Amino acid sequence: MHVVVSRLKRRLERAASNRLLRGPLSVEIADRGVAGAFRNNSPMSSGVPVQYFQSIIAAQLAVAGALLFQVRFFDTSNGKSGAQVDPRLRLVLVVVIAATLFVSLEAMREGWGSAAAALVAGGLALSVLPILLRVLPPLTRDIETHKRDPHLWVTVFALILYFAIVTIVVLIR
Fold first, then answer.
1. Which residues, 6+ apart, have CB-to-CB distance to 114 below 8 Å?
2. Separation CA 148–CA 142 (nearest Å)
3. Distance between CA 71 and CA 59 in Å, rounded?
4. Using CA atoms, how far apart are residues 57 and 65, in angstroms rounded to an integer?
5. What pTM was computed for the model?
6. Are 121 and 56 in contact (CB under 8 A)?
């Protein structure tokens, strides 16, 4: 096997020196040598490190755990122990979380670039939104008094600020 590789290496070097090979391969052979020209490039040659997508996956798993606890995802009892979450909202959360995780995994495997990084950052930001809304004053009116919370402006300002920060982070390349 070693003999075959060394013969191939000699032939390619001779061809590159004689300018028989034209195009990007001859440039790569001239720049990096024969072994470097045929070495597999790293999947993240697009400029986005694998660690970015790994961090998104870790943060997404933490958010998923918090959301599953918050919306009582696994609680199927029919008792009225609290406000029930709409099943469509549960489905949307599952789709966003799963899409973010699988796009991150595929981006690591295939070497997708900044577009995938922006997509998974947006997915993470979207999945954090229900937690943020739970912490802030409610946007809806009170059932008994039909009045809005006096601190509604805090929620509106926080949401505008949140979307502005997310937009800036996603658009930074």
1. 46, 47, 48, 173
2. 6
3. 18
4. 12
5. 0.62
6. yes
